[in-house]
Amino acid sequence: MRAKAGDAPRTMAQKVLAGRASDPTLSGDLVDVEVDQVALAAAPRRAFAEALSAGLKRAMPEVSIAYDGRSVPMRGEDDGRAAAADWLAHGLLLGRAGVGYPAAVHLERFASPARLCVTDEPRLAPVGGVGMLSLELPPGQLGQALATGRVTLRPPRSIQVLLSGRTRPFVCARDVALELMRRGLGEAVRRVEAEHGAPVVLEFGGPSVRLLSVGDRAVLAGLAPEVGAAAALFLSDERTEVYLRDQRRSKAHRALAPDPGAPFDDVVQVDLAAVDPLLIDTNGQVRTVRDLNGKPVSQVLLGGDGGVALRDLLAAAALLKSKRVPSRVDFLLAVPTRQILEVLATEGALADLIATGARLIEPDRGVLTGALYPTPSDGASLRTCDAEPGPWPRPIVASAETLAYAVATGEIGDPRGFKRPIRVSIPRVLPTDDVLVVRERKSSDAASKRPPSPPGPPPAPWKGAQTLDVTDLLGAAQAKDGALVPCATLDELRAACARALEAPAQIRAVVAAFVPSGLAALLAGVGVAALEGDPGAFKAHKTITLPAPGAWPVSQPLSVSVGASKIALRWCARGVERTWAVNGHARGTPIKR
């Protein structure tokens, strides 16, 4: 995708959106764009109910898929068969339980360069490794995408991440992602957001990008939500074309690269040769592995939905061959996709991991939230996948090689202690059996006789001024008239956003020092006010009264009384997003073209 003669140079994100926008210049605060794919994973029933409200007859995007992340259903829980049948009848694909984690499956089977995918799952960011722009939207907008093929969103800004050099032995893409966090990539995102009030996309470039496999690129792209970015993008090049050919999807390939002189808002550079094995500790701080050297480990979870590529799992299996897990260590193996599972089995790596003592567990969303295999209280837990934000103990996150060292020794240590580097060969012939991706049967005559899908949570509109309880996330469920939740960290804000999407009536407002534009739009879409201010100012107070949003100033801070003092808050919603917040939903509100 090259700029035409006379056009201003564009970033990759601008190229993806400009060809789909009603205003190709992307000059407004909000633009109307056409959607290529919809991927539902966090709350597919909610988005589908919104689509029915928007008049859905048959899904409009070229790919629309709902992933069932419940491989281990709880007693008394709805098995979802009726809802799944309704999805299929309206043209959605269904990723059945056991197909794998949505991000990894979507990367293999559907992600395509230079396309736009909208989703309800921020953990779908790894599809940026193949050059697909993935943006999280509120349920009402996802319903619009299914019913009409179009959505309203803020045009993003871009930060370029330049990679140079070559990684040393026992250093992988996961360590590079952690190095970017340690060097303050999150602060760069925050500066650009504060200046432009727009979502930020990380665009990876530099001479070393061409050395990275698509799997490694996906690991780096998965960094986006951890630093407050809306998405991440890699260029689409020969590596991408080979990957898609191996997945038997050659026709999906399109070239994608930024134009020379593209308007990046910031540039971050990393020399891969200077990166050491790193980890994220239980406080969310990035540290070198040596800082926790010798710390006993009681649980290791290898795999999950991000942070690990096929190469990493093969490397871990090779490092652990002929070794045995210590008796005090629980070694769990959550293979990301069925394709990766088959490759591990064919190559003998699965047998080596099981012989070491690994327990093969299903790819259930509960593994990520901690509902299944929670972090133990009597020792460190190491995982390759990022922790789901929430009010529960946080595991230590590290690379597959670091986890292999912990399995071999029972304690945290530098994987360079293995001394002899291993070489991993990725097979070129990959299994592409989509047996657990279900498509509608054309002979289905019973679609019209099926009962309608149950509606999602009702909208929670603002009704004048409201007095809210000031509480943390755990106390929000007990708030009588809704809660205001102060969030001291980005993780707390992401956790509050996830809770608000599930039960918008519980949380009516959140306050944080920094609210990414993408989260502000998500919260507005379910009737929750995203406010920037000092969350610490609310610690000594139990309630706060907020005026009706219609009385809130558009360009000036909102001044509210908390006890005897005044606090300035900035409402982060823009334009039509403010209408969404007042109405409690983001359904069918077109913008002026």
What topology does this entry show?
Layout: H1 12-18, E1 31-34, E2 37-40, H2 44-53, E3 63-67, H3 81-89, E4 93-95, H4 102-109, E5 116-119, E6 133-136, H5 139-148, E7 150-153, E8 157-164, H6 173-182, H7 185-196, E9 200-205, H8 214-221, E10 231-234, H9 238-246, E11 266-271, E12 278-280, E13 286-288, E14 297-303, H10 310-320, E15 330-334, H11 338-347, H12 349-356, E16 359-360, H13 365-369, E17 380-383, E18 396-398, H14 400-409, E19 437-438, E20 466-470, E21 483-487, H15 490-502, E22 507-512, H16 517-524, E23 529-532, E24 543-546, E25 558-562, E26 565-571, H17 576-583
Parallel strand pairs: 2-3, 2-5, 3-4, 5-6, 8-9, 8-11, 9-10, 14-15, 14-17, 15-16, 17-18, 20-21, 21-22, 22-23
Antiparallel strand pairs: 1-7, 4-19, 12-13, 12-18, 20-24, 23-26, 25-26
What this model shows, in words?
- The chain is an alpha/beta fold.
- The protein folds into 3 domains: 12-274, Aconitase, domain 3; 284-417, 2-Layer Sandwich (Aconitase, domain 3); 466-583, Alpha-Beta Barrel (Aconitase, domain 4).
- The chain is 26% helix and 20% strand.
- The protein has 17 helices and 26 strands.
- The strands form 5 sheets. Strands 13-12-18-17-14-15-16 form a 7-stranded mixed beta sheet. A 7-stranded mixed beta sheet has the order 24-20-21-22-23-26-25.
- Strand 2 (37-40), helix 2 (44-53) and strand 3 (63-67) form a beta-alpha-beta unit.
- Helix 6 runs parallel beside helix 8 (214-221), helix 10 packs across helix 12 and helix 10 (310-320) packs parallel to helix 14.
- Residues 443-448 and 589-593 have low confidence and may be disordered.
